[in-house]
Backbone:
């Protein structure tokens, strides 16, 4: 049974879902909302209390100021508030793509609220050798969205990141389709993408903190930009990345297998 709630946080109201019973586990993306994790959450709810949510400004989580930018730090503070609201923390947290940046910021800003942190395919572009070029490409995507809209912006974004090669049936391959997808994509490009991809995780804090931090990577992600960023972050943390089924959105296409690996990672915490 899934229960839907809302939580008032500074500058926003966050919509979140709770299902299952057991140790607390949060699944998150950015800009992907709760709906993207429905299959994975159902798989994990047999032995966990699973919380998913729409990040601030996305889908069912409206902002007080629609022009406010979303940053990993703000989203991390929202997640900390969700953990407190559910009231059974500390939590294990899984974040993918921009959500991986959220959980890295969470582990840095709120270490007492998390136990195991899995950052799946984080777009840490600042750790790439061509970071300056990547910043320019990101700025071009944002400018394209302002001038021509989210569909043209997504085409550039997908080509640069490799998401246009993702398996059919995954969100990465489809791009924005529904009216809500278009609204969320426009917000992502104009108010979220720059701050997310320019976030620099504090490796010293992550390695010295009380949480176990793992980097996840898709078995089929070799052609993606996040394949390289994931390896770059894992190298700095001093641990090899954990391989998950599928590509960037393997949790959608291979929910059962993905849940199996996720349980194993959580079980390795000290």
Residues:
């Amino acid at each position: 049974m899934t229960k839907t709630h809302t939580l008032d946080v500074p500058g926003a109201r966050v919509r979140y879902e709770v299902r299952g019973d057991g140790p607390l586990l949060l699944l998150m993306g950015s800009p992907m909302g709760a709906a993207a994790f429905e299959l994975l959450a159902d798989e994990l709810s047999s032995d966990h209390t699973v919380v998913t949510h729409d990040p601030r400004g996305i889908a069912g989580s409206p902002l007080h100021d629609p022009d406010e930018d979303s940053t990993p730090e703000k989203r991390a503070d929202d997640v900390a508030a969700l953990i407190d609201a559910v009231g059974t923390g500390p939590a294990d947290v899984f974040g993918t793509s921009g959500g991986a940046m959220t959980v890295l910021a969470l582990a840095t800003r709120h270490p007492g609220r998390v136990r195991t942190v899995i950052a799946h395919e984080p777009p840490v572009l600042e750790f790439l050798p061509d970071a300056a070029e990547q910043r320019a490409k990101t700025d071009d995507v944002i400018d394209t969205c302002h001038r021509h809209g989210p569909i043209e912006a997504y085409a550039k974004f997908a080509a640069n990141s490799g998401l246009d090669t993702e398996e059919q049936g995954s969100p990465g391959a489809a791009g924005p389709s529904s009216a809500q997808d278009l609204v969320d994509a426009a917000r992502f490009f104009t108010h979220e993408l720059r701050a997310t991809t320019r976030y620099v995780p504090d490796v010293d804090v992550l390695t010295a903190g009380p949480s176990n931090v793992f980097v996840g990577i898709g078995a089929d992600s070799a052609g993606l930009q996040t394949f390289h960023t994931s390896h770059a972050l894992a190298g700095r943390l001093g641990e090899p990345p954990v391989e998950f089924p599928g590509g960037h959105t393997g949790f959608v296409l291979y929910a059962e297998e993905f849940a199996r690996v996720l349980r194993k990672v959580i079980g390795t915490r000290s």
Observations:
- The longest helix spans residues 131-148.
- The chain has a mean pLDDT of 94.
